[in-house]
Amino acid sequence: MLAKFFSCYSQAPPELCGIDTTVTEASATEAHKARWQLGLKLTVHILKTSIPHNGSAPLLLIFPAPTPQGYPPVSHAMRVCAAYEWHSHKKVFLKDSCILSEGEMYRRLNGAGICNVPTCLAYGDVLCMGEQKTQTVQFLGEDWLCPLEAVLIAHTHHQLVLDTIGCMLTAFGSACELVSAIHDALIAHSDALKKAGILHCNLSPSNIIIYLGQGLLIDWDLSKLVNMVGPRQLTCTGTWQFMSVALLYDQHASHTFVDDLESSLYILLWVALMNIPSSFKSDISHSAFIVQTFNEVSGGMAKKFFLLKQEVLRMEQPLFPDYDALNSLLKALAKIFRSRYAEPPESDANIIEFLMKGQAWHAGQGALASNGYLPPL
Q: Where residue 372 falls among pLDDT bands split at 50, 70, 90?
């Protein structure tokens, strides 16, 4: 059976094998201009493609060929890079992946004027062989298929172009900039919920970028309209390292904006632990805490223990020496979300009221700003 599959696959046309035939070689002139604009070496292989642009002429994108790498079967096979748009002579951000239509969510967000969200210039499904979609879901009813408990969803090859090329959250220049960027992302999160009725559902360090000192919230592929019942993507409700205890404990729980707010605490803690010197006595204890707390796939007991006991925040020496305001902010946020899992649990209303007023984050920013920038990293 496997030999027959590979025999058929080797004889199938490129489009059926998942190759994007809309991508072609850039001309010598196009490649030269793109290399110069993007700061690439002369040896970099340059490709081009076009993406629909709101009913007008499509964008012509010139970009470096991606580096071949293997992906696990459960991934979205996402590739991102800076690209050069030929007609406008501007550098843009290109995202290529197999996901639900993220571009449609950006259209709604940009149309509602949501702050701290990049502008989507163009988006669309890759149109070679009609559409490129995963095929496995078509065989769910076959007699020969082994019983499956997992939910399979058809994915479509999708591309979008953003107007902003930022840097990763982990590239922050100071503790003040880190806190400010996460706070900016939470403002975008709140704005999207109030004005567009969209819940992000996937707050993580990789989904917050910094551009000219401002935090921007990106990657809305798992977001959903709040009037929807259940997630858009049944197989995932976030990046599990930063998911709330409630979602890790019950994978069928409804994803609410309180869960996203709880994720902001884990983002701040993880990024700080990975980039700021801490008071852990050894690298082993430092790594052990990160692995135990953030790499728990289900159950959420490690995060729950962290919230209830807060041992690392109550050590004799502050968790982050010389970063008193950051330590205070982490303690304040942990105290807020502890109330979700304390016995007896407090109402989410208290958490919502406190966070929506922005008291915790504003207090943290104020303390950081009052002393000027904290020691640079």
A: very low
